[in-house]
Specification:
The chain is an alpha/beta fold. The protein has one domain (2-261): 3-Layer(aba) Sandwich (Rossmann fold). The protein contains twelve helices and eight strands. An eight-stranded mixed sheet has the order 1-2-4-3-5-6-7-8, with helices on both faces. Helix 5 runs antiparallel to helix 7.
């Protein structure tokens, strides 16, 4: 479905479901250079379980128009405005990678909107290496190669997709290649400049679940654990073996965890 946010045509996937004001809602928040398609399995499942599903593309991503946003705080404010347009309140929220930072900022700034939250591949801060940031700034394909390789465990790089015949590595690469110039850099820069301390997490009262991949090279497991331990009402799911791309590498385990929190 399409709707308008700040004058820009914005896309939101409903998981092929329908919207009913009497149903509970779940909002999915994608990562850097990605879009709603990250959440295909989960969004379809919850739509069929009679949830209102909102997997929203940020400006300049996927099917949404507009320029990419410059900071995590700006993304959280934009997301609140999008939810107001959609008349969504008291929702569950699921954030992946950059999206997990948006969720953390959202939970700190707009706690009344949330009833629960799941963070997949998170870290505070979320530093980006100079080689990756510089390559993205130059719109070099090297940025996609680095991010895609570091996002997948060695097992996933060899194969092992639970959907037979589909390469996780090539899927990730094609998704990143679909973004317009400067979008990936803007996202990575926003993550790199999100220098909030763990005190932000300590302020969050929302019931939270954190997924940690034991072989995550993009958001180190020890950093994700620190985030989880800082949030007062938080549970942890450890996935093994799993890299950063947990929605691809461990789809069933992630979905099982989301069912418990959403």
């Amino acid at each position: 479905m399409y709707f308008n946010v700040k004058g820009n045509k914005t896309f939101c996937s409903n998981g092929s479901g329908t919207i009913d004001p009497n149903q509970q809602s779940v909002v999915f928040v994608h990562g850097a250079g990605l879009d709603h398609s990250t959440f295909v399995l989960a969004s379809r499942y919850f739509a069929r379980q009679k949830f209102n599903v909102y997997a929203i593309d940020f400006p300049g991503h996927g099917r949404s128009e507009g320029n990419p946003l410059n900071s995590i705080k700006e993304m959280a404010a934009w997301l609140r405005e999008a939810l107001d347009v959609l008349a969504v309140s008291r929702t569950a929220m699921v954030g992946y990678s950059m999206g997990s930072l948006v969720c953390l900022q959202f939970a700190a700034d707009y706690p009344d909107y949330l009833r629960s939250m799941a963070l997949v591949g998170t870290s505070i801060p979320m530093p980006v290496s100079d080689p990756l940031l510089n390559a993205a700034n130059e719109n070099s394909h090297d940025a996609f190669d680095m991010a895609n390789t570091w996002s997948h465990s060695k097992r996933a790089q060899l194969g092992g997709n639970e959907n037979p015949g589909i390469s996780m590595m090539m899927t990730g690469q094609r998704l990143l290649e679909a973004v317009e110039d400067d979008v990936f850099f803007a996202d990575l820069k926003a993550c790199n400049e999100f220098t909030n301390s763990l005190k932000l997490a300590e302020k969050i009262s929302t019931k939270t679940l954190v997924f940690i991949g034991d072989r995550d090279q993009m958001t180190a497991p020890k950093n994700a654990l620190q985030v989880a331990q800082a949030i007062p009402n938080c549970k942890i799911i450890h996935l093994s073996p799993a890299g950063h791309a947990m929605f691809s590498e461990r789809p069933n385990e992630v979905l099982d965890g989301l069912i418990a929190i959403v």
